[in-house]
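We read letters as residues; the integers encode the fold. Take this protein.
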Amino acid sequence: MDLEVRHLRVVCAIADAGSLTRAAAALGLTQPGLSAQLRRIEAMLGGVLFERQPAGTVPTHFGELVLGRARAVLPGIDGLLADTARAARRERAPDQVRIGSVGAPLLGHLLLAVKALLPGADLTSRCAYSPVALLDDLAAGRLEAAVLGDHPGEELPPRPGVRFHPLVTEPVFALLPAGHPLARREEVALADLLDEDWAVPRPDGDRTPEYWSSVCALTGRRPHTPYEADGRQLIELVRAGLAVSLCQATFIEVPGIAVRPLVGDPLWYRHVLAWRHDSPLAPVAPALLHHVATGYRETAAAGRAYAAWQRSSARARWPRSPERSSAKPNRTGRADPTSTRAEAG
């Protein structure tokens, strides 16, 4: 992982707050998530930045050096970003629509919806692994809209001028080699997966590995994660029989791979559409959301494991924390698991 501007902001936020707990609240993160991020930053820089004391965190001599450089650099970077964002808004065509997306099944549906609703728009898209980086681009005016995602207890922080619309919350499923004994089951217990080696995504901004680990810890164990990979490389590690992993419920099985629900639905992933309040998409947002939700339902129906889960499960509520998500969701009544649900953004 390379040092990024946001890492410098994290270091400054911790120093300004004087404690990890207060800094996590200011950054919209959990305290364990911020602690893990600080450890990665310290590993990148090669030294300990803060001493943990009963009264809070105090910069080390090494930390003072880093803070001094960071505080000298960040104002110039902030000025550059503000100036270039203003210049870009002046120069770009008023009908330009730039879309960002994490790895999720919504991008194609979103692009088709924009083409249908704004046929004259100059439409472009780009993908990124981290929803935080895309959210930064939205807030800075470098994107008009984005497909984002988060987990219980790791919700994306609000940003001025950006509207969030959580579209759907879906369970996280097990990703297995097709020939694995667990693939013969209709559902897989998380505890059984913990007997295996895991392949996990790169820990950078998305906080997925931290969320997985926090839920697994409720069983008294944590996954053994010798393999770190993203996208196609992670799939190939699982296909080769070297590891198991987890995936979005909408992941479509490919040869050599099996997707299975987890017993009790202990993990969840939330798909979020976000757009700038001043973007060309804001006036057509209700129709846009309808198009994307319809496309999501079609995608969900195409996955054998997810379609079976939907037939047997009522829509579960969005858990507030890993502790709550460890309990089996309340399944009274039947509801559409892919129905949209507006939330304040």
